[in-house]
Amino acid sequence: MAMIGFPTTCVSQKILCSSLQSKPSRSNISSSMSVHHKKPFRPAREVEGQVTHSMPPHKMEIFKSLENWAEKNLLTLLKPVENSWQPQDFLPDPSSCEFYEQTKELRKRAMEIPDDYYVCLVGNMITEEALPTYQTFLNTLDGVRDETGASLSPWAIWTRGWTAEENRHGDLLKQYLYLSGRVDMRQIEKTIQYLIGCGMHVKTENSPFMGFIYTSFQERATFISHSNTARHARRHGDLKLAQICGTIAADEKRHEAAYTNVVDKLFELDPDAAVIAFAGMMRKKIVMPAHLMFDGRDPALFNHFSAVAQRLGVYSATDYADVLEFLVGRWKVEGLAGLSEDGNKARDFVCCLAPRYRKLEERARGRRETREKRTVRFSWVFDREVQV
């Protein structure tokens, strides 16, 4: 970044003159060569062909006009900090003389849970830990972004409040996994760093119409995933872990209600734009926010994690179809009338999609049942093999 008050060219010339006037020492040459040969940081997974756009002013006005509505219907769904749970409520108290005994009990329960469950739990936790990316994503959306970083717009207050609530999810799961002793925390921490560095590419193109459709879908999907990890933890006898996952799922359900409320309103005010955005997102397919995850070893890590989640029933293609069907019903898409030609095509496309996904999943299930079982080594569980 150029210094304020100095044109870039002047700064460059000043540095050049200075270097010509003084003879560099051997150590300076060595240091300079070292700097010049240093490789610039690049994300491990890069996305080409990204698209952005600017929403026209009359569409921006919709979100400006909704600020009072957002204050009454969004911000009331955020809980005051003093009424919120915190990760420490579920973990051994490090200030207590019973800390070691409580941790020992936690680790004893953890030993009864198989590796494939931990792969799903770790994948969920890493997804939650990439939270800086998700706040950044929300601030790419036209008309609702936090323009200053501390804006008092209801949309900006929502984004920061939502982020603050979500922040507890990764903290709680990460601390629990650390205490369990069942996972390779260094490999997990590397995966988190890689993922935040890579970002996410969910193809919402700066459009709040597409952005809020994505978040509605994603929050419901995350609710299902955490609910199912709670169910599996209960089945394996770890009731405390089941409580943790269930508590996180309840937050996701509340956040789903907020985002689907926004899209309810968009369908009321501009059904044509809303249904076209819905169809646009479904044509692109809703990808999970951690789809660029990498651990430094497995380039297909997200696909392998997803395959384990599919096999265990933590989150499956059937769940994807269920979420889509739920949202079509919630937003009364089938009954939309008075649409443009593009709007009618979008409505028909979206309404036919869930049954199509179910048929495809039935065929895929048949192929999975007949193919030879295979395993993959996951660095998260010390390179042990897990069936995918």
UniProtKB/TrEMBL annotation:
Residues 24-34 have a biased composition (Polar residues). Signal peptide: none annotated. Binds 2 iron ions per subunit. Pathway: Lipid metabolism; fatty acid metabolism. GO terms for molecular function: metal ion binding; stearoyl-[ACP] desaturase activity. Keywords: Chloroplast, Fatty acid biosynthesis, Fatty acid metabolism, Iron, Lipid biosynthesis, Lipid metabolism, Metal-binding, Oxidoreductase, Plastid, Transit peptide. Fe cation 1 binds at residues 128, 166, 169, 252. It is found in: Plastid, Chloroplast stroma. Fe cation 2 binds at residues 166, 219, 252, 255. It is an enzyme of class 1 (oxidoreductase). It holds the Pfam family FA_desaturase_2. Residues 24-52 are annotated as: Disordered. Its EC number is 1.14.19.-. GO terms for biological process: fatty acid biosynthetic process. Its cofactor is Fe cation; Fe(2+). Introduction of a cis double bond between carbons of the acyl chain. Belongs to the fatty acid desaturase type 2 family. Homodimer. PANTHER family: ACYL- ACYL-CARRIER-PROTEIN DESATURASE-RELATED, STEAROYL-[ACYL-CARRIER-PROTEIN] 9-DESATURASE 7, CHLOROPLASTIC. This is Acyl-[acyl-carrier-protein] desaturase. It comes from Ophrys arachnitiformis subsp. archipelagi. The gene is sad4.
